[in-house]
Amino acid sequence: MELLKRSTALSHPVKILQFGEGNFLRAFFDWMVQRMNRVAGFAGAVQIVKPRSGGEACKRINDQDGLYHVVQRGVSQGKPVEECQLVECVKGCLDPVADWDAVLETARLPELRFVVSNTTEAGIEYRPGADTFPAKVARVLEARFEAKLPGLVFLPCELNENNGDKLRECVLKYLEDTPQVAEYVSRECVFCNTLVDRIVSGYPQKDSERYCRQLGVEDRLLVCCEPFFFLAIQGPQWLAQELPFEKTGLDVRLVEDLAPYRTRKVRFLNGAHTSSVLGAHLAGLTFVDEMVRDEKFGAFLRQVLFEEVMPTVQLPEEEKRAFAQAVLERFANPFAEHRLLSIALNSVAKWRVRVLPTLLDYVALFGKLPPCLTKSMAYLIDFYRTCQFQDTPQVAEFFATSPTVEAILENADFWGMDLNGIPGFTQAVKEGLERS
């Protein structure tokens, strides 16, 4: 079958320099750019740069002239969804070593306005003398400064908290020996903090032949994702004029504070996962969608989301309810094939971050324990006592000593506090273990 190729030249100028060629950005940000071009008149192209040299990614992207399809599949508003969209806004991919001159040429384009990235959380770091992602950004901005061009807007999609602030800090450290460039960056460039949310499963290995037959071409870059899409940007209001995401119909928010949205994601999405998957595994279930359909754990999930998490999140009621419903739909996605044990990794640390703050806030609000979140600690203890688990050596060594419930709950290294101090919690966990 013929490989997907471009029949006409890319007409839009490059407005976005993107560090990161992976599935997530291609199914998230580039897909959004395609939509802005189609319905909002953005008229911009994306030039991808690999954060690190080597591998076959650049060749695969360039072999298809930057073209690929995104398939959204899952459940949305209670209905199954399977939609295929051609993304044609990507110019191609550059290697950061072999093609570095071309990267700098892109930096000097007058139309260039945005830099997007997803280089993993560890990618935003300062290491003197190392060619890190922020070091590359510093060189890009130095070239732009020398060309006497306006600064750029940065939209990092790494999962670091305050990712834009962290990137700016690292870039300026690399520019300490060039104060004029550093001053230009501080004056002219905008580094936005962002929060991204979409599950991208990648290339559909099992269904690839079916999709290629439907498309009539071979697409080796085909990428699958869920229908859900959310992007929050902490940045200036004028950004909405330059990035017309409001006209796309997508859930993109320009906000003053990301904290409520980060809390929403951690408590609803991540907290529902962590509080339920260990118990579901103990009950013999395997996949997240199977857990949602199960009579016992489906009800457990709904109580966690709508009765125990929802009151603790400071956002409008309709917005919280809609997000909770979306979480259920995302968990029920039969295409995701999300294994419970893949979420169970490092559950001790996850419970502390994703569940405990909600439990404490619930107690403060209502003066009583949330039944399901309390039960989730019983599930955790039962799981760590009876199942093979992946966690830190410290956690493994601790549970190997067969600690009592009281000893587990008082381990402040795990929980940041002695959980025995929560009124009624110790006894409730013991009763939960007896009924498991």
What are its keywords?
436 residues, alpha/beta, Rossmann fold, N-(1-d-carboxylethyl)-l-norvaline Dehydrogenase, domain 2, 4-stranded mixed beta sheet, 21 helices, 13 strands
How would you portray this structure in words?
Helix content is 47%, strand content 15%. It is of the alpha/beta class and 436 residues long. The protein has 2 domains: 14-255, Rossmann fold (3-Layer(aba) Sandwich), CATH 3.40.50; 259-435, N-(1-d-carboxylethyl)-l-norvaline Dehydrogenase, domain 2. It has a 6-stranded parallel beta sheet, with helices on both faces. 43% of the residues are buried.
Structural class: alpha/beta
Shape: globular
CATH superfamily of the largest domain: NAD(P)-binding Rossmann-like Domain
Q: Quickly give the CATH architecture of the largest domain.
A: 3-Layer(aba) Sandwich
CA(first)-CA(last) distance: 54 Å
> Looking at CATH, which topology of the largest domain would you report?
Rossmann fold
What topology emerges from the helices and strands here?
Layout: E1 14-19, H1 23-27, H2 29-40, E2 45-49, H3 57-63, E3 68-76, E4 79-87, E5 90-94, H4 100-107, E6 114-117, H5 133-146, E7 153-156, H6 163-174, H7 179-188, E8 190-191, E9 193-197, E10 200-202, H8 208-215, E11 223-225, E12 230-234, H9 239-242, E13 252-255, H10 259-282, H11 288-293, H12 295-309, H13 317-331, H14 340-343, H15 347-354, H16 356-366, H17 371-386, H18 393-400, H19 405-409, H20 412-415, H21 425-435
Parallel strand pairs: 1-2, 1-6, 2-5, 3-11, 6-7, 7-8, 12-13
Antiparallel strand pairs: 3-4, 9-12, 10-11
